[in-house]
Amino acid sequence: MNTDGEGEPYRAYFEESPIGVFVTDAAGEFVDANPVACEMVGREREELLSLSIEDVTDLPEGAAIPSSLAKVKETGRARGEHQLVHADGRRIDVLLDTMSLGDDRFVAYVQDVSEKKRYERELERFKAFTEQSSDLITLLDEHGRIQYNSPAVEDILGYSQDELIGENPLEYIHPRDRERVADQLERVLTTTGRGPRAEFRIRDADGEWVWIESYGTNRLADPNVGGIIVNQRDITERKERERTLKQYERAVEQATDLLAAADTDHRLLFANKRYREFHGLSDDDIGTTTLKEVLGPEQFAEIEPRLDAVFEGTTHQYEMVRQDPDGDDHHFDIRYYPLRSDYGEVVGIVATMRDITERKERRRKLKQYEYAVESSTDWIVAVDTDHRVLFANSGFRSFHGLDGDARGTPLSEALEESVATEIVPQMERALAGERVEFEHQTTSNGERRPVRSVVFPLEDDDGTVIGVVALIRDISELKEREQQLQVLDRVLRHNLNNKMNIVGGYAESIQDRTTDSFIQEAAAKIRANSDQLTQMASKERAITKVLSDPPAMEAVDLATVAQQITSSVRKSHPAATITTELPEQRVAVVVGAVGRALKELLQNAVTHSDRERPAIEVRVRNLPDAVQVQVADDGPGIPEMERAVLTGESEIEPLLHGSGLGLWLVKLIVGRADGTLRFDENEPRGSVVTIAFPRPGAAD
In 10 A of CB 118, how many CB atoms? Predict the structure, then answer.
């Protein structure tokens, strides 16, 4: 360099230049170097001036001088990147701008580009990483908008790499996640460094929701980045597995079975809520408590051989009775399974315990029912909606010649055609929801029997009618007794009426032919007793008819019947005061001959009263679960003997007035309608009789 007076300013620039300046001759020997250049290669100027370019440059093999210097010799100037070798051996990336000074002198302006080259190499590595990574890497600007997406955006979300540039990513976040993600993004934008992990759903190109796990790092202050780097990973499959696992966990925890797992040291690994509650365990007991501690030494010793067998790889099933914390016994169906590792090694045992106490009880009751049904003297049969036999007890099978359990047999094959024709319509009524009771004849192999059948719907657990059940009773003996009773009734009633007519006629003749007051009074008593016996015969006839030919059960309005009977009795007994208390609405009841029973009560109350003008009140009430009619009088009460005739109980409160036969007639009529009788004292005197009938449908 020129060092005379004119060159002083240039020398000063040379020395103070912020970049390195080397001066060499044509052979590459250093002639001069400024302080920056010396510092670049870690040499003092004196040392450097004794060296050549070859000593401080990483030259290709066989090259004597840098290519840029060779080019300068040809063209006068060259510019290129090279590596200088520091005295400590480090390679320094530099940009050389070399030109000729003439007189075989060359000057090289050297700029340290190591940081730039390092950044470029990092950028290349980052680019290679992002281009090849299965994760999606996104760069956001200071406003949170997308500046870059790695190619993985196509695989994960189905968008092209440049499709979302400039977009606000929050617009693609699931509405339920958007507010939370916006808060997290705001924290990342305002805080340097790595932000918290986030999980959210984002809409892909097909409109489906993809679960993403992301980390955001704020590099806004880094001039080489100037943005937010967001690493994102598709975790949809993981979330689905987690969801499935949660469902399994809830299912296991909420299972009605007792579920548990233990390791090979019999230490509990897991126990669901039912298992913990039954054995009195807390959550803290899991992982620390052994099966021996849970069950006790005696019961554990009983099951330990079974556990050992399961540890060998087998499964085991048995039943056992265990007590709950309250001391109640429970029957369990217990099953053990090996718990295996991912490599198939048995590392524990899984136990399932199903409480079969109710099932055991149902089986016991079912056996009792089965025995009762099979042993019943009545015939019991059930058929489905297609009239095929579901079950039939031994009595039904025996009479109708059916082998085995007869299930699936068409009813038409079990019954003769004439019998089937008669009962099928009644079955259809039962299939429609009715309870049907009727008498008919059944025949098998030429044998004919009278029976009374009760047919009712057979329902499943949901209340759906799936068939009918028939209870069939052989009433051959009953019919024979009824026939005998009818014959005896006709004979007795005929003879009794005839004889009483004769007695009454003679008593009347005696009264007409004598003036003796004593004889006339005696004759009057004979006639009165004769009339009473005739009335008793009439009631006996009514009772016989109810027994032998029960009145048809029919739906009636009890209030209307009470009004009609009351009006009739008023006309026949005008001296009596009969009042009514009747509801305005209809009072439905299913009964046979209820009017006859009510009339009997009213007539007894009138005729056996000790007052000139008997006072009687009839009340009809419509209660929530029953229909009720009451007859209250002000008479003298009922003799003890008549109460015993009716009830057989000597301590019952006074009933009502009237003969024992009249009360039996009332009792028969009410009983056949599944009704009840109750007798109370009236205040201040007299009796109250209450008849209650079930409301239609209440029994079902």
Answer: 12
DSSP 16-27: H-SSEEEEEETT
User: Six-digit token pair at 431?
Assistant: 């299939």
Query: How far apart, in Å, do the first and last CA atoms of the chain sit?
Result: 125
At residue 1, the pLDDT reads 52
pLDDT at 353: 93
Q: Residues 519-541, buried b or exposed e (16+ Cβ, 10 A)?
A: eeeebeebbeebeebbbbbebbe
Show the tokens assigned to 598: 């009510």
* DSSP codes joined into one string, 465-513: EEEEEEEEEE-HHHHHHHHHHHHHHHHHHHHHHHHHHHHHHHHHHHHHH
Neighbours of 406 (CB within 10 A): 20
pLDDT at 307: 93
Q: Which two tokens stand for residue 75?
A: 């063209």
Mean pLDDT, to the nearest integer, of 326-350?
Answer: 92
Q: Tell me which H or E stretch contains 31.
A: strand 30-33
**Dist CA 556 CA 563 (whole Å):** 13
Beta strands in 235-315 (DSSP E): 258-263, 268-271
**Alpha helix (H) ranges present in 432-475?**
none
pLDDT at 388: 92
Question: Alpha-carbon distance 98 to 107, whole Å?
Answer: 6
Query: What are residue 107's DSSP bridge partners?
Result: 23, 99
How far is 216 from 200, CA to CA, in rounded Å? Answer: 13
3-state secondary structure of 439: strand
Give the span between the Cα atoms of 399 and 443, in whole angstroms: 9
**577-581/615-622 β-pairing:** parallel
Contacts of 113 (CB under 8 A, 6+ apart): 81, 93, 94, 95
Please report, as a single letter, which amino acid is at residue 322.
R
Q: Which two tokens stand for residue 151?
A: 């190619």
pLDDT of 69 reads 64
The pLDDT-based confidence of 640 (bands split at 50, 70, 90) is low
Percent of the chain with pLDDT over 70: 87
Residue 613's SS3 state is: coil
Q: Which of 659, 381, 393 is nearest to 533 (CA)?
A: 659
Token digits for 656?
A: 């009502």
Kindly report the average pLDDT of the chain as a whole number: 83
Identify the sign of the CA torsion 41, 45, 47, 52.
positive
Q: What is the DSSP string of 57-116?
A: B-PPTT-SS-HHHHHHHHHSEEEEEEEEE-TTS-EEEEEEEEEEEETTEEEEEEEE-HHH
Q: What are phi and psi of 26, to 5 degrees?
A: -65, -25
**Is 679 a residue whose pLDDT tops 90?**
no
DSSP state of 695: P
pLDDT digits (tens, 9 = 90+) for 494-536: 666 777 778 878 887 887 888 888 887 887 888 777 777 777 6
Phi, psi of 353 (to 5 degrees): -125, 115
* Closest among 539, 512, 515 to 527, alpha carbons compared: 512
What pLDDT is recorded for position 494? Answer: 62
pLDDT tens-place string over residues 546-579: 555 666 677 888 888 888 888 988 998 888 899 9
- AA identity, residue 643: R
Q: How confident is the model at residue 314 (pLDDT cuts 50, 70, 90)?
A: very high
- Residue 297: band (very low, low, confident or very high) from pLDDT cuts 50, 70, 90: very high
The pLDDT, as a whole number, for residue 169 is 94
d(CA 100, CA 82): 18
Task: Say if residues 213 and 197 touch (Cβ distance below 8 Å).
Answer: yes
Pairwise CA distance, residues 400 & 464, whole Å = 29
